[in-house]
Amino acid sequence: MWSVIKKLKKYEQCGHIKAPVRAWADIYEAIRFSCSTGRPIILRLNFPNNAEVLPGHGGNARVLYNDYKLTGILTDVRGY
């Protein structure tokens, strides 16, 4: 849990996520992954519609090969 929050704060401080940036195509896949790995934080990122499909994830994951600029992080801390 600590490393996840530490990484989130790092993203907020530097203002971007370094490439490659990988993400699930929809919230259902993100929640499934979160539950199966125990990673409680899900970031919602707006990828372009033409983002490359990440191989080996059933067509459900996308990847960007440039840094992803963050405009702000909203937090909803539930029990942490």
Lateral arrangement of strands in the main beta sheet: 2-4-3
- Assign an overall shape: globular
Cα(first) to Cα(last) distance is 9 Å
Give, in order, the helices and strands: HEEHEEE
Percentage of residues in strands? 15-25%
Low-confidence stretches: none
Assign a percent range to the helix content: 25-40%
Note the main sheet.
3 strands, antiparallel
Q: Which structural category fits the helices and strands?
A: alpha+beta
List the helices and strands and how they pair.
Elements: H1 2-14, E1 16-17, E2 21-24, H2 27-37, E3 52-53, E4 61-64, E5 68-69
Antiparallel strand pairs: 1-5, 2-4, 3-4
Can you put this structure into words, describing what you see?
By secondary structure, this protein is α+β, with helices and mostly antiparallel strands. The protein contains 2 helices and 5 strands; from the N terminus they run αββαβββ. It has one domain. The chain has helices at residues 2-14, 27-37; strands at residues 16-17, 21-24, 52-53, 61-64, 68-69. β3 and β4 form a beta hairpin. The protein starts with a helix and ends in an 11-residue tail after the last strand.
